[in-house]
Amino acid sequence: MGQTIISCAAKMPDINIVGKIDIGDSLEKVIDDADVVIDFSSHNVTPSVASLCTKRLKALVIGTTGHSPGEKALIETSFSVIPVVWTSNFSCGVNTLFWLVRKAAEVLNQDFDIEIIEMHHRLKKDAPSGTALTLANIAASARGYNTEHSIIHGRSGITGERPQAEIGVHALRGGDVVGDHTVIFAGLGERLELTHKASSRETFALGALRAAKWITGQKPGLYTMLDVLGLK
Q: Whole-model pTM above 0.90?
């Protein structure tokens, strides 16, 4: 993602990359030259990035997923000091899917069961994807479900009949799939499927750069791509 962001930014005259940070590099040495830090590192690195951005009053765009509760808590301390765009997916199409899923969950009554299927490349480390979890949380919230109890991950054995207030999330891994997500609303006699398929990482890079431009000058707080795209 870092290389893709650099490549996309090179085509944007209003964006200047002032530092490229990889394993072993020091963000502290270049952060003062930046207005915004874009983090696509790793879930365990993001808290330290957020801490440094907070100290130096730099806006932050977070693209990492798979954070533990403790890591999330550390990151959240920055929201009162700096503006942060934190989202599970920077694709403009996926964020439109977020909006559509909320509307569909609200319009279609509880006779329509919700299932989510995601597929990514074989090298992806976390499952299910952050995007799939976001979709599940959006659907659960729209239905008034308790997210802790309604979202399940796969099924095995004699599970009995499917409870009404349940959302299944299923992760597939293989090959070089960039990212596919499908949300199924299954009713009696009909089924609605909302699908997004990413074929290039540029989709996410362009969204992250759009977020970086948008967040400059925003007030401290937590924002998502729905804010960036004006969908809230």
A: no
Active site residue 124: yes
Catalytic residue selected from 124, 170, 213, 219 = 124
Tell me what the mean pLDDT of segment 112-119 comes to: 98
At the topology level, CATH places domain 2-86+201-228 in Rossmann fold (3.40.50)
Question: 3.30.360.10, 3.20.20.240, 3.40.1160.10, 3.90.550.10: which CATH number matches 92-198?
Answer: 3.30.360.10
Phi, psi of 190 (to 5 degrees): -160, 160
Q: Per-residue pLDDT tens for 155-177? A: 999 999 999 999 999 999 999 99
DSSP conformation class of 190 = -
Task: Say what angle helices 69-76 and 46-56 make with each other, to 10 degrees.
Answer: 10
Question: Which residues, in sequence order, are CB contacts of 12 under 8 Å at separation 6+?
Answer: 209
Q: How many CB atoms lie within 10 A of CB 125?
A: 9
In the chain, what are the domain boundaries? 2-86+201-228, 92-198
CA distance 20 to 38: 10
Q: Of the listed 43, 58, 67, 120, which one is catalytic?
A: 120
Give me the sheet containing 179-186, strands edge to edge: 151-153, 167-173, 113-120, 179-186, 191-198
Whether pLDDT at 55 is above 90: yes
Residue 207 pLDDT > 90, yes or no? yes
For residue 69 the two structure tokens come to: 């509760």
Catalytic annotation present for 55: no
Given pLDDT bands bounded at 50, 70 and 90, which one contains residue 107?
very high
